[in-house]
Structures are given as structure tokens and as C-alpha cells.
Amino acid sequence: MCAKSFIAHASRGRLTSAATAKTYPYDRYVCHLCNSALILHPEWGTDRPWFEHTDDALTDNGRQHCPYVVTAHDEQHFVQRLRRLVTEAHPQ
Q1: How far apart are CA 4 and CA 21, in angstroms?
Q2: DSSP category for residue 13
């Protein structure tokens, strides 16, 4: 399970938000922490736009150290408990 990211480096090396990236959906985006390639998810309904890590595009640094990828076990357990209590809740 990867956490959603709302900031990334665009192809020109500048930090950009996912909301700004909607204007350039075909640009290349990488994680600002681990330099792994990211996928932009545009706004869907009430969800804000966000970036996602993918398993096949992770760098070694990202796989081992990126906080968007390496989530704490306690956090995963908390999300699972929350999903049981509030079945329609989605992590943002």
C-alpha cells in the first residue's frame, strides 16, 4: 500500500503540485524524495488530484526509504481497522 503524494518534480526539475500537474498531464513526474517515477491521477469526483508510486518504477532508494512506499506497520493496521469501522472511507 502506497500513500498518496501531492507534490513531485516535473520533467524540468521544478517542484509541482498534483493540482498544477493536471494542466500538463503528459509530463514526466518523479518523487521529490526518492526520484522514482510517479503516475498522475487527475481529479475524480470529490478526490483531489494525486501522484502514485508504482512497483515496477521504484528505485532502490524508494523501495527501502521513501515514506510514501514504506509505511509503518502500525499505520497499515490503523487503516485496516478504520476500514472495518467506516466501510465507505477511503484514505486520502
Answers
A1: 15
A2: S
Query: Could you give the CA distance from residue 75 to residue 49 in angstroms, rounded to a whole number?
Result: 22
- pLDDT string in tens for the chain (92-residue length): 577 889 999 998 899 999 999 888 889 999 999 999 999 998 777 678 999 998 888 888 888 888 888 766 666 667 677 777 777 666 55
User: How many angstroms from the chain centroid is the CA of residue 55?
Assistant: 12
Whose cell is 498534483? That residue is 18
What does the alpha-carbon distance between residue 48 and residue 88 come to, in Å, rounded to a whole number?
Answer: 17
Copy the grid coordinates of residue 15: 517542484
